[in-house]
Amino acid sequence: MLKLGGEMFGGGGVGVDPDVVQTVSRQIAAVVRTGVQVAVVIGGGNFFRGAELQQRGMDRSRADYMGMLGTVMNCLALQDFLEREHGIDTRVQTSITMGQVAESYIPRRAMRHLDKGRVVIFGGGAGMPYFSTDTTAAQRALEIGCEIVLMAKAVDGIYTADPKIDPDALMFDNITHREVLERGLNVADATAFSLCMDNNMPIMVFNLLTEGNIARAVRGEKIGTLVSTPGGRPSF
């Protein structure tokens, strides 16, 4: 399961940056051609963030639904680049019914698509307000039987502090889910880490902007930070 942040799709701005989507699709296509099954969850931060809109007075539930629709736009952009430029067969499934542009989320159908070598891109988040797309990635990964959640970020991994603010921040090579939660490391939604901890799902946090990193993560190379629970399922 590959989790992509929506803010990266916008290249730091509002909307979709075709150059970024092209880079991401090229990396995904290279992995798929090796025979690896790939599912993707994309955020919508390049369009809307429910929590931020709430701070400006908007109803949180309505703001979150706007964010969910933003994720679908990102899904369609990635689907277009994968199919048009790389010939990779894809399916978009959404938690909110929109039959003209995507299938509804059906776990068994998603698994069947993966078995056929298709990339399945999940949009619409969890379909409920107050749940992040990080949590959606964890839930979808567990339900369709993924081996690991690859959490692509704009930083190299999980640090002791924000490396953009603290030049002395150190990166972890390995850390447990519980340590991430107890230290309050703000790398992803706490609910996502808690869900993965309870179900022994490893997470790899790595830098998406480094060309070829998705393939390196899939091969189990030592990049980024591996989050796991001792005694859980074996990681890559």
UniProtKB/TrEMBL annotation:
Regulation: Inhibited by UTP.
Enzyme class: transferase
Predominant place of localization: cytoplasm
Reactions it catalyzes: UMP + ATP = UDP + ADP
The keyword Zinc appears for this protein: no
Domain of life: Bacteria
Family indicated by similarity: Belongs to the UMP kinase family.
Protein name as annotated: Uridylate kinase
Native organism: Saccharothrix yanglingensis
Gene name per UniProt: pyrH
